[in-house]
Amino acid sequence: THHCPIHQFECANGFCIPYAFVCDHWDDCGDNSDEQGCEYSSCRGSEFTCSSGRCIPQNWVCDRFNDCGDFSDERGCDSDSRDCYPGEWGCPGSTACIPVGKVCDGKPDCPGGTDETNTTAEQTCGLDRCSALSCEYFCHPSPQGGACYCPEGFIVANDSRSCEDYNDCDIWGICDQLCEDRPGTHHCSCADGYFLEQGHVCKANVTAGLPQLIFTNGGDVMMADIHGRFVRTLVPAQGRGYAVGVAYNIRSNLIFWSDTNTKKVYSASYNGENIKEILTAAVPNVQNLAMDWINFKLYVLDATLERIDMCDFDGGNRVTLLAENLETPHGLALDPTVGYMFFTDMGANQEKTKLERAFMDGSNRVELVKSRLGTPTAITLDIITKRVYWSDSHFDTVETVTYNGLDRKIVLNGATQSPHPFGMAVFENHVFFTDWVKMGVIRSNRFNGSNPTLLYRTASRPGHVVISHSVVQPLVKNPCGRHNGGCHHICVLSHSSDNDGLGFRCKCRYGYDLQSDHRSCFKVKDYLLVASSLAVRGIPLNLSLQEDITLPLNGLGSSFSGSAVEFDGNEEAVFYNDRSKGLIYKSNLNGTGGTPYPLVLQTPSAQQILTGKRVGIVDAMAYDWTSKVLFWTTSTHRAVVAFRVTDKSKKDIVTGLRYPKGIAVHPSAG
């Protein structure tokens, strides 16, 4: 029954993928249904043709990244031995490096076997060139007749003979966490709460409790150990649920999850008891939750409403932080020790797909990664090394950059390691991810993807995964801790250049806006209602630090497509339509206790279907507030319709129109 959005292709298995990924030589659906019956066109002039026929941009060739999937874009490249680590040898005609000991050992290790004797190419392993080279340290046999190499921690200088010190800390994965370079060597250390093993591995101190995996399986929330030994159902499915996002706060002993079938966000204790519905309105498709464990806030990402909200653990004090320039947001991660928020957004085309960083109050957005992104799904942080990890279910990769978007590294590459990654978490020296093709939770090394292990199988598509342990949520001083930071309503963490990077901003509840002192809030009298296909939004009329003044309205059905909105100022009611179902809605906006809050819809029961009889597709509405008559134009019935709200009587007042669109009414002039 699930139908994909307009700009997406529906696979045979029900997956939705962008049209740009159909017939592009990549199996995005997982059942190859997006590559059936294709007429593949030849690549454009600015593109490189892989052996498989896949097209990639020319500047992706020889960039040490297997873009083609079969290494055909990395063959015949110059190897600059400077890009190899100490103790490695650069393969001729390729960007690959192999250990010096594997050169001329009788087994081909480089692409094309260029590290061994090849009589046709007149390459013979030997030491003939050694006397001419006069190496500073040692000469090793090579197909070119010998090559210099250096002791550990040194590399061959530009003159091909002398040795120079190499900063070992530049070697990816040499230390799990902290690294200090020393002449010819290095020293690894670990952050608080971890201890060092084998000279470079950091393990969490288990005196504070054992680390646990929390992930979802269909509607169930599961808890398991990180070694694949035992798993239990923490919370069974709520009705016919499908749990996706998960988050936890170890100090409050609380677990949170979102359900895209019941359209709610829940919380429960670690023992699976005290199940509460914390968000029930305007959460139609929450794909991700993230935890601010310093200021005790839950961040909520909704992919249908294209926004990131924040609320208290009981669902109160909800505020919208981001609702602009998002198309299909998915991944969300927080580092509340420095006030940063990271999220992924999939645009209608690959040029608009991005990984962004913002301050945790939603300000100061920066696009960290824009190139070579397909379908970014999960995103997670290593707050010790200050790196962002993300998975991509189009390119089947897991990659990482620093918090500033630099030093991009690939951790997992190719359909064998990660066929369709979805959720992800990083802990110690492992990356844990859920996969929709392997249907389970997989653990791999987080530097090179080695030793992939399927820890747990799931009966249905797994959602997100998190690791619960106190070291994952280290404490720093909360700037909102004393007197709510001096804020009238809501205090939100943010980034700051001083105070070890942590600051705060004040926000107001729905229906209010910030005064010029940036602390106190005043009640908003006038605001703008905007109907879009996603929802009806209430936004400030003036430049404001508040993103939205109201909760979005989007109907009660599974799909929604709005186009018109009207307002009754006496009753504090909003009228709007749903084109996909042919309905007119009315929402009473006075909150609880009879006091009229402007548009604080705490309960969906305030939303009611006014009429669904012969409505059709409505394009525009106008309201006569004196006699409580709602007018609308409908292109289905080619008419202007008058509808009395009090007794629900209806009449076509103009018929036989061709394409009725806009409408306005002036009640006092009739």
From TrEMBL:
InterPro entries assigned: 6-blade_b-propeller_TolB-like, EGF, EGF-like_Ca-bd_dom, Growth_fac_rcpt_cys_sf, LDL_receptor-like_sf, LDLR-related, LDLR_class-A_CS, LDLR_classB_rpt
Pfam families with a match to the protein in the record: Ldl_recept_a (PF00057), Ldl_recept_b (PF00058)
Family annotation (PROSITE patterns): LDLRA_1, LDLRA_2, LDLRB
Protein name: EGF-like domain-containing protein
Location, primary (coarse class): membrane
Limits of the EGF-like domain: 129-164, 168-203, 479-522
Topological category with respect to the lipid bilayer: Single-pass membrane protein
Disulfide bridges in this chain: C4-C16, C11-C29, C23-C38, C43-C55, C50-C68, C62-C77
Record key words, sorted: Disulfide bond, EGF-like domain, Endocytosis, Glycoprotein, Membrane, Receptor, Repeat, Transmembrane, Transmembrane helix
LDL-receptor class B repeat segments: 253-295, 296-338, 339-385, 386-430
Cellular compartments annotated: Membrane
Every EGF-like calcium-binding domain range: 165-203
Gene3D superfamilies in the cross-refs: Laminin (2.10.25.10), Low-density Lipoprotein Receptor (4.10.400.10), TolB, C-terminal domain (2.120.10.30)
